[in-house]
Specification:
Length: about 230
Amino acid sequence: MLLLVCTLSIESYGQEEEPLQSVGTAYLGASYAIPLGGYRQAYPQANALGGTFGLLLNPRSYPSPLEVGVQVSYLSQGIDKNRSSFSNVYPIIKTSHSLVPLHLVARVKPQKPMRFKPYIDGLVGITIFNTRSKLKEDIFDFMRDDHEAIVLGKYRTTVFSCGIGAGMLLWESNSKNSFADIRVTYLQSPFTTYVRKRDVAVQQDGYPVYFFTRSETNMLQISLNISGVLTK
């Protein structure tokens, strides 16, 4: 009996723990967008800063270099402030300009463990251009339970977007499940109509009026993320 127990103990000790299988990647970080080509000529101040979140999954039941999923970014192009006669209490209209790129992503990366792991992304989706004007209120108004922003004007347009990205996973953590992630993505879009920063005026009745610009909207998006490997 003692011999049997010792034998089982030795066999259990000798067995290696089964490695966890990667089923995908999740990432979150900061992004900076730079206008290119005709977009830069039409709107030199179109640079935008914000954040990006992505979730990619292995579409196969076995280890694969391919991951597919979705990515969304929110990028602010800045805020305009104009005086308005709409309200004596809140005499300032605040107009925000932003981009929301939303893409399906296919990523190919090496499977073997590497200190610096490169990858390539293909993206297809849309980019939403948002302009929204509201009265600038104080912080105490936002703290009220029944608070609703007083929106005086808004404009939104959606354009097709596709692109290619290249990145590098580096500085692997001790757990080997998280990385720093640096990526550069080129996004191409056709002509669309949008509102540039400072192309906002106020009418006599206090409402904003927008002046529109039309151009292609190609851009370069630089991202610095923290990426986590999803395992099972």
